[in-house]
Amino acid sequence: MDRADVGALVQSAVDGDAAAWKALVEGLSPLVWSVVRSHRLSEADAHEVYQTAWFRFAQHLGRIREPEKAGSWLASTARHECLKVLKSLRRLTPTDDPQLLDRVSEDRTPEQSILDLEEAAAETERIRRVWQEFEELGDRCRQLLRVLMSSPPPSYQEVSVALGIAVGSIGPLRQRCLRRLRARLEARGAV
Amino acid sequence: MSGIGGEGTFEGGDAFAGEDPDLDLLEEELRRAATILDPVPPELRQIAVEAFALHDLDAQIAELTFDSVVDAIPVRGATDVPRMLTFHAGGVTVDVELTVQGLMGQVLPPQTAGIEVLSGPVSGSPLETDALGRFTYDRPLAGPFALRLRTGEGVLVTDWLTA
Q1: Of A49, A56, A182, which has the smallest distance from its Cβ to B159's Cβ?
Q2: Measured between CA atoms, how close is B90 to chain A, in angstroms?
Q3: Where, residue-wise, is CATH 2.60.40 in chain B?
Q4: How far apart are CA B161 and CA B66, in angstroms?
Q5: Cβ within 8 Å, pair A84-B3
Q6: Who contacts A29 (Cβ-Cβ below 8 Å, separation ≥6)?
Q7: Which one of A32, A45, A167 has the shortest CB-CB distance to B6?
């Protein structure tokens, strides 16, 4: 979302405008969800962290110092909650936690989602392959790309706080990860 | 690359546009894939919309100042260790111990206070402390929670946490 818009929407929401709040939810939910997904929590934990981030945001709304950076505020909050959940899981369960191995959206299979699409068959096949190869990438690339593919595209600042990496390293890492993904697709003859 | 330094444009297509347009296209394909295959669950979006009700400028926020998940050294071999939390607002401290059975806590300095355990935008379960400020809640907590306290100093709400 455009940062000037975000700042204005936050201000309106502080003044009690529910429509402005709704617009913030619509515009920034994919970012929060992407940050949560990039940390590979279980389905239940992912849902809880998403909610905690929004509840905190609502609670702190009138006290946020830089309203135009609300996206970064939410991304950072989501990251910290994800790390806490992962840390407490590790402490309570010394062995591999099966929850951590959960895959994306169990309630709606990729096949079903694709059927919903009114796209040409070749294109949906392409998207399925891109997603499949993305999921096979190493942790670091998968994490970065999952945040980058948020819609609308996130800013440098948002990606930086979402993942705890320096702003300056995002560009080079992004290139490397996308090149790696492309190489995988080429190797499968899917380009 | 443009926009190095954290102040890159927020229209991220520009923010990350590199010298290789094919990679930009690939990122765009990933974005479409995520929108289709891993979207924000609609029920979560709805909960976030309803969370506007939590916006309350009259309540003071009791900030989390200690969380054993982050700040304590784990006891070796110990499992099911209660999670210890401390919140501060003005002159009031709230200590909370979170267990699988529920939570116990104390308001300091000792005082009677009305407490609500919140789990979302709808109103929570009311509790009263005893004269020493102690309180107990006997239901397991799952998901996000916060405490709303009515004390002599006014209304406090703790930071939201994930149980």
Answers
A1: A56
A2: 16
A3: 53-162
A4: 12
A5: no
A6: B40, B44, B45, B48
A7: A167
A145 lies within 8 A of chain B by CB: yes
Beta-carbon contacts of A83 under 8 Å, excluding residues fewer than 6 positions away, are A39
Backbone torsions φ then ψ of B136, nearest 5 degrees: -135, 140
Q: How far is A152 from chain B (nearest CA, A)?
A: 7
Q: Measure the CA–CA gap between A152 and A163, rounded to whole angstroms.
A: 18
DSSP strand pairing (B154-158 vs B60-67): parallel
Nearest Cβ partner for B1 among A49, A104, A171: A171
* H helix intervals, chain B: 12-15, 21-37, 42-50, 68-71
Structure tokens, A118:
């009114």
- The residues near A151 (Cβ < 8 Å, ≥ 6 apart) are A30, B31, B34, B35
Which one-letter DSSP state was computed for residue B73? P
Mutate to test the interface with B, among A31, A155, A175, A176 (most CBs of B within 10 A): A155
Supply the ipTM of this predicted assembly.
0.85
For an interface test with B, give the residue of A25, A79, A87 to mutate (most B CBs within 10 A): A25
- Strand, coil or helix: B61: strand
Q: Which residues pair with B127 in a beta bridge?
A: B115
Q: Would you tell me how many other CB atoms lie within 10 Å of the CB of residue B146? A: 23
Amino acid, res. B83: R
A94, A148, A168 member nearest B16 (Cβ): A148
Cα dist from B159 to A132, B47, B118, whole Å: 38, 18, 11
Class for the domain spanning B53-162: mainly beta
**Which residue, among A35, A51, A167, has the nearest Cα to B46 in the 3D structure?**
A51
Tens place of pLDDT per residue across chain A (191 aa):
777 799 999 999 999 999 999 999 999 999 999 999 999 999 999 999 999 999 999 999 989 999 999 999 999 999 999 999 998 876 544 433 334 334 444 455 666 666 665 556 778 888 999 999 999 999 999 999 999 999 999 999 999 999 999 999 999 999 999 999 999 999 988 65
